[in-house]
């Protein structure tokens, strides 16, 4: 769903964390989406979970090369992911043709009330789903079985979970400001015969919010 | 109340297990059923929960016509249970996972490897959704028995389920039952060059947790020897593998009250990672924290203090100023400062640690 044109909400700027006086687009629409005019990124509100509360997405419209966006989300203390505000980019390159694909991020969250449960993660379709978890709270976990622990891939160590569910790579040292070598993750799956050499389609980065009331902020993010 | 698993995880699970045609279904019926399953997952991806429910119910109805030995009905029940989780209907999800196990047993036989799928889904529900580890244990035991008896099993299947069962036993404090599981995983992995060092390290950490340090040390040293042999200057992952082993060894020595040996292990780990890792990576924290603890245990407080400081800076950068990990580092740093006679500084660190912990408690 394409939303045009960007709306400048000067009144909201004073309340927003970690941003300057950039043009800000915002939406409360369940699946509101902002498309940057260059850079190939979109940012999505993506409030899909059952019993989800309100969520407002703000996008710094001048951050097209490394999307800066944030949400104020009000999610009840019930189980289940309520939303996945995220940036997305379509790659369309076969895994074995990838010379590099690095996901970088700088994120923060600030809770006003409630129980904070969330996970920051890349979610890529290659074409089956592969997730790379970068930081998460103690009450969430991947769906699946621990396949192998402490696997070194692309300069970081991961615990790897296998299907049911997607292949999930959980950083053994979590970070809110780092980068992950996504190409190395996909190539690890191919070289270990867990994945055929598919095409990397859409790659996303954002936060799966389960519960809590507060701000979740992506100061900057990129997949390139 | 604990949240559910990552939402995005559910989509692929069913399609992976739907690839095998079922023997009693006509090709047209089976194709229609597969399409319904695909459409259900598509509807979930498109955030159309009512459509997903409707499609899944259709798939369920169709799969009942496939004959008594067909597991399509069970597979569809697993998907329906996962849709219930999306609806936040945990009781119905649990009930449906159980029904999926029962119908699979009826269709394929109690000990068929087909039953592993609904069983592991039910175990995931207890592990990730309700955190009832005592309920996971018998399911994992049963899965391991099934996998071991399966003529088509691979060693990795048995290794994985043995080790994971061992981890559940460990998590529930049943160390004596866990030990043979880890031993089996190590023994089977010995022929598997890629998995062997991982399983050695898993077992080493188990023995460390159990307080059997000499066994832990032997296993970790074996893992380290393998990693050192494979380490090359142009492969940072091979260097990280070695550093991870050294960190594991350091943790064993710290628990064993051999801080001088822990110090040597952590120093070497840091020396290796320094060559390829930027100075503010979160992966450095375990070695920095471990080395600081080792030095603190040897009363070398002046050396320990800057390491805690550096670990703190990295943790704050990577996790934010109010993360529980930061609180732990602040508290440890405070004990060093107190030992150095800097009571005011120590109190400031402790106050900050308490403040973080209170915030964490308030929001949980």
Structure description:
The complex is a heterodimer of chains A (224) and B (364). With 224 residues, chain A is mainly beta. Chain A has a single domain (10-223), classed as Jelly Rolls (Sandwich), CATH 2.60.120. Chain A is 6% helix and 52% strand. Chain A contains 2 helices and 13 strands. In chain A, strands 1, 2, 3, 4, 5, 6, 7, 8, 9, 10, 11, 12 and 13 form a 13-stranded mixed beta sheet that branches. In chain A, strand 7 and strand 8 form a beta hairpin. The longest helix of chain A is centred in the C-terminal third of the chain and has 10 residues, at 182-191. The model of chain A is unreliable at 1-20 (pLDDT under 50). Chain B is an all-alpha fold and 364 residues long. Chain B has 4 domains: 7-108; 110-192, Tetratricopeptide repeat domain (Serine Threonine Protein Phosphatase 5, Tetratricopeptide repeat), CATH 1.25.40.10; 199-264, no CATH class; 278-364, Tetratricopeptide repeat domain (Serine Threonine Protein Phosphatase 5, Tetratricopeptide repeat). Chain B has helices at 10-16, 27-45, 49-63, 72-86, 90-108, 116-129, 133-149, 155-171, 175-189, 196-210, 213-230, 236-255, 259-274, 285-297, 301-319, 324-339, 343-362. In chain B, helix 8 packs parallel to helix 10 (196-210) and helix 9 (175-189) runs antiparallel to helix 10 (196-210). The N and C termini of chain B lie close together (10 Å). The model of chain B is unreliable at 1-22 (pLDDT under 50). The interface between A and B is large, with 67 and 59 residues.
